[in-house]
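subagent[fold] <- orchestrator: predict structure for attached chain, return tokens only, no commentary.
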Amino acid sequence: MDENFLLDTATAQDLYHNHAAKMPIIDYHCHLIPEMVANDHKFKSITELWLGGDHYKWRAMRTNGVEERYCTGKDTTDWEKFEKWAETVPYTFRNPLYHWTHLELKTAFGIEKQLSPKTAREIFDECNEKLNQPGYTARGFMRRYNVETVCTTDDPVDDLHNHIEYARNKAKDDPRMIPAWRPDKAMNIEKPEYADYVNQLGEVAGVTINNFKDMMDALQKRHDFFHAQGSRLSDHGIEEFYDEPYTDSQIETIFEKAMRKQALSNLEIRQYKHCFLKLCAEMDNDAGWTQQFHYGAIRDNNTLMYNKLGADTGFDSIGEFTTAKAMSHFLNELNMEGKLTRTILYTLNPCANEVIATMLGNFQDGSCPGKIQFGSGWWFNDQLDGMERQMNALSVLGLLSRFVGMLTDSRSFLSYPRHEYFRRLLCNLIGNDVERGLIPDDKESLYRMVEDISYNNAKNYFKF
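subagent[fold] -> orchestrator:
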């Protein structure tokens, strides 16, 4: 992992070192804990910083035969968990975790040794020693990686007090932290906790919710509140897109059944989600926001472990859904009504890369460059092969030059090297094309392209 890691040609090296690398980071989708940013959290150890909440590492450790108590248990020490991760790392060759692990050690701590059982104690101690020094805090890492703006993922019932406090007190060189709206709990009508959530939403919004219209009124109030705190971005985690026809009276009946905790049919659930997402999309359009749709995951596959640990603990996988027509119908419905705002589409299944890349062109309207975006390689795809496949599909079927680039989608303050990883791959793709004679060696255009994809396109697109 020298300075030219992943950069095969002189052109790629020039594009990365002199242009992409210097651009600030706009991390427009992540799962950082806002309280940690607001309080400039000081980490007690590298284990808390690196392994706490990292289900990517937990999956690898379990696959390597590591007992669950060393992943998520409370009866093991930080050193014991770190030691088990160090034992796993040599088995992660060709898994992106190997590259990420060593990029993070190098860029955050200046450590260039390979992590293994032989080096584990030395690296553990060196990292912990540095974590006691100034600058090795939540905000310190963000400054180190030149993060300009970060968008967290927040539920409509959140009071956003950490965002408000941070905006009021942050230092001049600290990044902006902006809330992003994630109303999945109000959409997931099939969940047993749905009715309790709706009641909580009503209390927070100051609305007595007796019907579906009342609930949407409560969401609108919260949407307005998020807007006042700088939010300009929503996100929806969906299995697939929905286009089942419905009437207002049907939706009210479905809502009433859910609030009484009665069972719903699959059709009723899909009708409700179609209606809900459409109204949310209209809300975003009216406010001038960007909407994001992450689709294609089968979540919480392991019921036994879900009951023990809850969601987002490493038991999700790529799903296979026939959703192209429903996606088209959903976007077309909004477009026909003049309610289709800027939209980013992410798929977890790379088999749908070309589907999305062709869908974009159906709804570009010239109002802004790249109004409908193909989101970067997401989750299981934010690695070398997955990101290259996403960019190749976008290049062939759309305009890579107008791409808004990378995000971390992470809960870790050490995940920013994913932006570096992405930028190196981007520059390598373009540099290789130049040296093969596939695109011209037009320095001005090439420099602009990599700087735009790394930073400028996102800055212009989101209008934070």
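orchestrator: received. Logging for downstream: The radius of gyration is 23 Å. Strands lie at 25-27, 147-154, 176-181, 233-238, 290-295, 297-298, 317-318, 342-347, 372-374.
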